[in-house]
From TrEMBL:
<dbReference type="InterPro" id="IPR003783">
    <property type="entry name" value="Regulatory_RecX"/>
</dbReference>
<dbReference type="InterPro" id="IPR053926">
    <property type="entry name" value="RecX_HTH_1st"/>
</dbReference>
<keyword id="KW-0963">Cytoplasm</keyword>
<feature type="domain" description="RecX first three-helical">
    <location>
        <begin position="10"/>
        <end position="49"/>
    </location>
</feature>
<comment type="similarity">
    <text>Belongs to the RecX family.</text>
</comment>
<comment type="function">
    <text>Modulates RecA activity.</text>
</comment>
<feature type="domain" description="RecX second three-helical">
    <location>
        <begin position="56"/>
        <end position="92"/>
    </location>
</feature>
<protein>
    <recommendedName>
        <fullName>Regulatory protein RecX</fullName>
    </recommendedName>
</protein>
<dbReference type="InterPro" id="IPR053925">
    <property type="entry name" value="RecX_HTH_3rd"/>
</dbReference>
<dbReference type="InterPro" id="IPR036388">
    <property type="entry name" value="WH-like_DNA-bd_sf"/>
</dbReference>
<dbReference type="InterPro" id="IPR053924">
    <property type="entry name" value="RecX_HTH_2nd"/>
</dbReference>
<feature type="domain" description="RecX third three-helical">
    <location>
        <begin position="103"/>
        <end position="150"/>
    </location>
</feature>
<dbReference type="Pfam" id="PF21981">
    <property type="entry name" value="RecX_HTH3"/>
</dbReference>
<dbReference type="Pfam" id="PF02631">
    <property type="entry name" value="RecX_HTH2"/>
</dbReference>
<dbReference type="Pfam" id="PF21982">
    <property type="entry name" value="RecX_HTH1"/>
</dbReference>
Length: 160
């Protein structure tokens, strides 16, 4: 910012910013620091924004989990990492991550794997499954869930 903002101008500007979309306390703190606002002023502004419900980390967490799961099709591990980067406490993050319906979660993973399978070139099933597993893990899904969704034959079936 070229001209120094007064405390009231900074509060009004950031309140307007918060009213357009969900933001967490850490994002607003970072923005105010970039604007060159003093630390004690930032603390007062953040407290006021929280008391007036412009920012609420739990509400932000719920929206973040929902958006990243449903629209970006991220797995729980990647969402948890994103929340960690936003400085959301892990107990809050996992409370909302554990609310994700398991059937819907596995259904999204199956759909991702099915569409990815069409674009993978592999010499055999072993290579194909390895590539699918790496893809799903990069999307933040856990290995136990990936194995449930990839059709990996049991060892007994391979012997016959």
């Amino acid at each position: 910012m070229s001209a120094q903002l007064t405390d009231e101008e900074a509060l009004n500007r950031v309140a307007s910013y918060c009213s357009t979309a969900e933001h967490c306390r850490a994002e607003i703190n970072e923005k105010l620091q970039r604007w060159g606002i003093a630390y004690d002023t930032i603390a007062r502004i953040l407290d006021r924004l929280e008391s007036e419900k412009f920012i609420d980390d739990e509400r932000f967490c719920r929206a973040f989990v929902n958006d990243k799961f449903r629209f970006a099709k991220w797995g729980k591990m990647k969402i948890a990492q994103g929340l960690y980067m936003k400085k959301i406490p892990s107990d809050v993050a996992w409370r909302y991550l554990n609310e994700i319906d398991e059937e819907e979660y596995l259904s999204i993973l199956r759909d991702l794997l099915t569409s990815k399978r069409k674009s993978i070139h592999a010499a055999d099933d072993y290579e194909l499954n390895g590539k699918l597993m790496r893809f799903a893990m990069s999307r933040g899904f856990e290995l136990k869930d990936i194995k449930r969704c990839i059709d990996i034959p049991d060892e007994e079936e391979q012997i016959d």
